Queue: 2 jobs
Job 1
Amino acid sequence: MPIPSSNRYATFDGAPPPIFRQGASALSKLIFFCALAAFLMVADVRFEVAKPMRSVLATMLYPIQWLALQPSAGVQFVARYFQSLDAAQSDAQSAHRKLAAQMQRAAVAEQLQIENHRLRQLLDLRQRPETTGVTAEVIYDAADLYSRKIVISKGSSHGIVSGSPVLDELGVVGQVTRTHLLTSEVTLLIDREQAIPVLNTRTGARSVAYGDPLSFGGTLELRFMAANADVLHGDLLTTSGIDGVYPAGLPVAKIDKIERRADSAFAKIHCTPIAKISGASHVMVVTPVAHLPSPSSPPHPPPSESTSATIRGTQS
């Protein structure tokens, strides 16, 4: 039986079909949900209302994330295993070579030390005092934008005194400029207020290196060197030991750049520090030379009988 045209779009409850149902417009709904989203974002930022829900979701999704990452983690583990195995073998071979070289250098150094001791006794020169040191850990960089300083984990209670040289495994790092009970402040070599007497190991010429924190990311500069001075790229600079602070022979820097100008009587020489100035994690604080006990000069040998007879014959 055909449905009458008047009831064709009517439902059983007599209401019009949903397509003709009146409500809020699409623009009104868009504005409402945008405002709701903005409110929820502001409330989450200010009051963290979604933090508990986020924590619950993260906890529930963690096992799924862990399972999804396992294949990639397994591949990375196998790759790291073989890489670490190759690196360990290479490090072992390198360590053996370095150990053999160190043993040879130690034997030569011991022989040279014995010869140096004998020569000093022969020439009746004062023996150099033995230096002592305290190891420390670098805690953090000092909060001073206009200087280059670090703070180490040893202070006056550990025997650290102001003016002590600070070294790492490569060379001189800086100098202790302030001590506290448990910590100390170290001024790095590249600080503009720092200066260190150095010796060119190739020529034996003495000079003074000043910190230059702005050039090339932090270097040293040899000032007041004549334009015709005998300096070459790569020359090694060590402590000269004449300032009463740094022991002689400690590596300081290598000459990296030399600028000779016709309108200046002095050359501009930049040096690269040998020590890890910005990356040192552990250092050694050495007692200043002026604080070391001065060894007494060796006693003069008593004159022999022939020498006494010669002296008596000369006097007569």
Job 2
Amino acid sequence: MGRPVVVLSGGMDSATVLAYTVALYGEADAITANYGQRHVREIESAMKQAERYGCRHDLVDLTSVGALLSGSALTDEVEVPFGHYAEETMKATVVPNRNAILANVAAGVAVAREAPAIILGVHSGDHAIYPDCRPEFVEALAGVLKVANYHPVRVEAPFLHTDKAGILRVGHALGVDYSATWTCYVGGDKACGKCGACQERLEAFGLIGKTDPLAYE
């Protein structure tokens, strides 16, 4: 039986999921996709996280696919919206069908390696904005993977009903190094502190009474 396959973006949610998976299963593989996102800071962070936990880490080149997924501030020359995550403007950061694509790549890897499950870092804080982070999506994906392959692969989303602050609490208990994660959409030398992703991250650290170790502008 192979190791569970974690979809690892390099952000704080997926870093926590990786630590959680290693704690639960004792080991894990990690998959990170380059889909032509605005910057590579998250990819660099994913490499650090995988190395820390001694995981096999595969970087998948999906840039040709990402070039077709136009209209998002994460992949196109579209201005990154500032403000709280829940604002209508944050829909500009939706990449068409991204989680379905990444999850199915991970599922294919899991089938090839006879792994028991793919592990996703989606959480309740994303439900309002991102359709492919909602329970209905995870449930539907799980149903597809049961019938799509001879080797069945489970879909696990351990933080599906947990908010960002709850994820941080788990991560701190597991000793996640959040200074080696990246959340900012802009991708400068320091996090901008203004985009929705930064604001949600800073808010979560504040809610649990911790200081974010990441450097901000």
